[in-house]
């Protein structure tokens, strides 16, 4: 299992989300590219967020920054065009030791914040009612979908689909419940010093 895989964390800390799902493809809203029909559901969609007075370019940038509490990785990820790939370079040496037990709560926080601050995102979620939201990783070179998404297998999509499941939960309830550690937002104070 790759160091970067969150599957072991989900299995240990979030067992309710540790499963393989199957969805009929003709009843899905597939998220594949940011500029695609349902692209606003992607964490990489340019939907700026403001947290404690600091601007973030996307939910993905905010999520990746939550992994760190030290200046160098925070500075690099905040400035990066691709926050996910930049964060990967720092994770083995600088990732929070408790990341595994907060990863789903962190993404829930990011999605909830996006929901509260972006009208287009909320509207798209409403438009998707009656459809299953899936992160379509069919074109990805790896054989199986990772924890976030699904792959197309004939008439169905199959995979863990964590992102899609959280988006549907948010759509259906209007609220994602999360519990983050007390120091979860220390990175914002550090970033404010960097970008000041």
Question: How does this structure look, described?
Answer:
With 196 residues, the chain is α+β, with helices and mostly antiparallel strands. The protein has a single domain, classed as YbiA-like (Tetracycline Repressor, domain 2), CATH 1.10.357. Helix content is 41%, strand content 13%. It has 8 helices and 7 strands; from the N terminus they run H-E-E-E-E-H-H-H-H-H-E-E-E-H-H. The strands form 3 sheets. The chain has a 3-stranded antiparallel sheet with strand order 1-7-6, with no helix packed on it. A two-stranded parallel ribbon has the order 2-5. Strands 3-4 form a two-stranded antiparallel sheet. Strand 6 and strand 7 (156-159) form a beta hairpin. Helix 3 packs antiparallel against helix 4.
Q: How many structural domains can be distinguished in the coordinates?
A: 1
> How many angstroms does the end-to-end distance come to?
40 Å
| CATH topology term | Tetracycline Repressor, domain 2
Number of strands: 7
Residue runs with pLDDT of under 50 for 5 or more positions:
none
Strand content: 5-15%
Measured on Cα atoms, how large is the radius of gyration?
Answer: 16 Å
Structural class: alpha+beta
**What is the CATH domain class?**
Mainly Alpha
Helix proportion: 40-55%
Shape: globular
Tally of DSSP helical segments: 8
Largest sheet: 3 strands, antiparallel
Kindly report the spatial arrangement of strands forming the biggest sheet.
1-7-6
The helix/strand order is HEEEEHHHHHEEEHH
Mean pLDDT rating: 96
- Just name the CATH architecture: Orthogonal Bundle
CATH superfamily: YbiA-like
């Amino acid at each position: 299992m790759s160091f970067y895989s969150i599957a072991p964390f989900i299995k240990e800390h979030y067992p309710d989300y540790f499963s393989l799902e199957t969805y009929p493809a003709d009843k899905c809203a597939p998220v594949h590219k940011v500029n695609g029909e349902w692209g606003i559901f992607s964490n990489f969609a340019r939907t700026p967020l403001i947290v404690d007075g600091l601007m973030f370019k996307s939910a993905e940038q905010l999520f990746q920054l939550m992994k760190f509490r030290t200046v160098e990785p925070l500075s690099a990820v905040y400035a990066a065009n691709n926050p996910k790939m930049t964060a990967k370079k720092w994770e083995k040496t600088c990732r929070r030791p408790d990341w595994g037990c907060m990863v789903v709560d962190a993404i829930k926080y990011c999605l909830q914040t996006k929901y509260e601050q972006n009208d287009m995102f909320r509207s798209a979620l409403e438009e998707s009612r009656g459809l299953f939201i899936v992160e379509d990783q069919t074109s990805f070179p790896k054989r199986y979908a990772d924890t976030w998404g699904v792959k197309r297998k004939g008439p169905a999509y199959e995979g863990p689909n964590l992102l899609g499941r959280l988006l549907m939960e948010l759509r259906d309830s209007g609220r994602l419940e999360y519990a983050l550690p007390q120091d979860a937002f220390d990175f914002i104070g550090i970033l404010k010093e960097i970008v000041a």
